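Example record used in the benchmark description.
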Amino acid sequence: MGSLTVPKSVYTEVVLAGKGLRKPEADALERLVDEGKVLIRKTPRVKEPPRGMHSGEMESIALAKMMDDILLVDDEVAIRYSEIINVKCLRTVGVLLLLLRRRSISFSDFTANLERLISSGFWLTGDVYAEAVREARSL
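Model output (structure tokens):
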């Protein structure tokens, strides 16, 4: 995998707002930026996001389009909009499967990370979970 780039507005929202709410992703993102593993990029102001989408998602889509890159996103509205404007998307579970496929993590790591995501509030249907584990086992 290459580098990860996030819009400045998303960084501000995740880190500044997240720290106040004691969200673990706030410290994690801040550390990754400090380590140079995540890049912050200012994006041009985007028009009003479509109904059901936040401005951070819209800016992320615009950045992926501008960079001709893949968008990491799990929000259904953002994914549908991205498909309309030809921005390729990768979901969180897809990232874990990619890491497993590349042998960067083991099957045990895959399932442990999936469980950790779910226990921290990541929503996944039983069908999607079962399909992800089935696919992971086949790799």
